[in-house]
Amino acid sequence: MKWKNAVLKLKPYQPGKSIQKVKKQYGLYSITKLASNENPFGCSKAVKESIRNFDESFAIYPYG
Predict the structure, then answer these.
(1) Is 19 exposed, middle or buried (CB count within 10 Å of its CB: 0-12, 13-18, 19+)?
(2) What is the pLDDT of residue 26?
(3) Alpha-carbon gap, residue 23 to 44, rounded angstroms
(4) The pTM is what?
(5) CA pair distance 52, 43, nearest whole angstrom
(6) pLDDT for 36 beyond 70
(7) Buried b / exposed e across 29-62, counting CB within 10 Å, b at 16+?
C-alpha cells in the first residue's frame, strides 16, 4: 500500500504527564485535569436549557 509522505512523517502520539507527576514536578497539592477535551465542571445551565429546548431530531443527520 502506498502512503502519502505526510502520513509517513507522522510521529507517534506522546501522552502527557500523569496528574501525579505534574503535582510532584510543580509541588502542587491538587490539580484539575483539563486535558483531552475534558471538563470536570460540566456544562452551564444555559447549555442544559438550550439542549432541553431542541427537538429530538437534532441528533439525526439530514439528507443531502
Answers:
(1) middle
(2) 96
(3) 28
(4) 0.42
(5) 13
(6) no
(7) eeeeeeeeeeeeeeeeeeeeeeeeeeeeeeeeee
How large is the average pLDDT for residues 10-21?
A: 88
What are the C-alpha distances in Å from 43 to residues 10, 16, 46? 34, 25, 8
Greatest pairwise CA separation for the chain in angstroms: 55
The rounded distance, in Å, linking the Cα atoms of 31 and 21 is 11
Q: What is the 3-class SS of the chain, one letter each residue?
A: CCCCHHHHCCCCCCCCCCHHHHHHHHCCCCCCCCCCCCCCCCCCHHHHHHHHCCCHHHHCCCCC
> Half-sphere exposure of 37 toward its Cβ, with a 13 Å CA cutoff?
0
pLDDT at 28: 95
For the chain, state the CA radius of gyration: 21
